[in-house]
């Protein structure tokens, strides 16, 4: 049995070693462009709350939070706390404002996730036009009933907030430019996520449709949300391999695609985040975080 595992591992590594390096470079590029877009979105939300924080500082906080997410159980459990502590201590942003800014970011992110889910459903539907109309109606309802949508999102994320923080979150809707820009940036991040997965599958010779990639991306997202292990180790990999094989990707290629995707989104991102944490004053933030 051990010999079979070794042989299989060598097969997967051989497949990965044969891919054109420019696909890996492009996948890495899309991943870190996403990080910058996340930072721009966060900066806009903080600006809407009257706080100016340097973009580079926010990028560092996000990179370090990715490392924290990858070593703590449950989705974003440690990373969000690190982001709050980082800008509160290094940029003198009150804890309440930094907390609300991150909650609002997650609410904005719900919109493109809904759209991505709709695109995935259209892949299976025999009536895509009806689903498109439902999507447009849903987007309009979200905007009209923004307060209810915010409350619903907070329940989904299991994020309790005080009445004062809730007022701050709802007041951000009046900053139409910031809200719209935040939704567009969130959408761009998810588009890049789909593009990255597309590039990785192309690297192994599989030209999957964007709608199918959207389905796989949604499955990957859901696996990440329900995973209880640090960084979703084991759960995300097994789920992604199962999803890929379900859609006709041979097992060997499915495992290789998953390994390459996780190298970009987990292994390398953890390494970069750890370096940022060590070299950018993160030790002070880490100590403050452990003392909470």
TrEMBL record:
Cellular-component GO terms for this entry: plasma membrane
Subcellular location: Cell membrane
Top-level taxon: Archaea
UniProt-listed InterPro entries: L-PG_synthase/AglD (IPR022791)
Keyword Nucleotide-binding appears in the UniProt entry: no
Transmembrane region(s): 20-40, 130-154, 175-192, 204-228, 240-260, 266-286
Topology of the protein relative to the lipid bilayer: Multi-pass membrane protein
First-listed, main subcellular location of the protein, grouped into a coarse class: membrane
Keyword Cell membrane tagged: yes
Keyword line: Cell membrane, Membrane, Transmembrane, Transmembrane helix
Any Pfam family the entry gives: LPG_synthase_TM
PANTHER family: UPF0104 MEMBRANE PROTEIN MJ1595
Family: Belongs to the UPF0104 family.
NCBIfam families linked: flippase-like domain (TIGR00374)
Protein name stated in the entry: Integral membrane protein
Organism: Thermococcus onnurineus (strain NA1)
């Amino acid at each position: 049995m051990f010999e079979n595992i070794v042989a299989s591992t060598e097969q997967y590594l051989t497949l990965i070693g044969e891919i054109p390096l420019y696909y890996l470079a492009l996948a890495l590029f899309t991943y870190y462009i996403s990080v910058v877009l996340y930072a721009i979105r966060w900066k806009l939300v903080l600006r809407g709350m009257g706080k100016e924080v340097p973009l580079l500082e926010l990028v560092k906080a996000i990179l370090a939070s990715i490392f924290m997410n990858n070593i703590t159980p449950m989705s974003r459990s440690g990373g969000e706390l690190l982001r709050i502590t980082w800008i509160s201590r290094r940029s003198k942003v009150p804890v309440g404002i930094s907390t609300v800014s991150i909650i609002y970011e997650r609410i904005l992110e719900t919109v493109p996730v809904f759209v991505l889910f709709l695109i995935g459903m259209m892949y299976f539907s025999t009536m895509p036009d009806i689903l498109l109309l439902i999507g447009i109606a849903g987007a309009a309802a979200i905007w009209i009933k923004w307060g209810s949508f915010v409350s619903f999102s907070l329940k989904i994320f299991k994020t309790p907030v005080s009445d004062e923080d809730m007022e701050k979150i709802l007041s951000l809707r009046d900053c139409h430019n910031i809200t719209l820009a935040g939704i567009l940036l969130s959408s761009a991040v998810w588009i890049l996520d789909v593009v990255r997965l597309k590039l990785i599958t192309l690297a192994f010779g599989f030209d999957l449709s964007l709608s199918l990639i959207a389905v796989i991306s949604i499955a990957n997202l859901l696996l990440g949300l329900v995973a209880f292990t640090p960084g979703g180790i084991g759960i995300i990999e097994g789920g992604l391999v199962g999803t890929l094989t379900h859609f006709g990707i041979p097992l060997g290629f499915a495992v290789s695609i998953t390994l390459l995707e996780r190298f970009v989104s987990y292994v390398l991102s953890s390494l970069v985040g750890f370096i940022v944490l060590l070299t950018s004053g993160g030790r002070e933030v880490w100590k403050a975080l452990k003392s909470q």
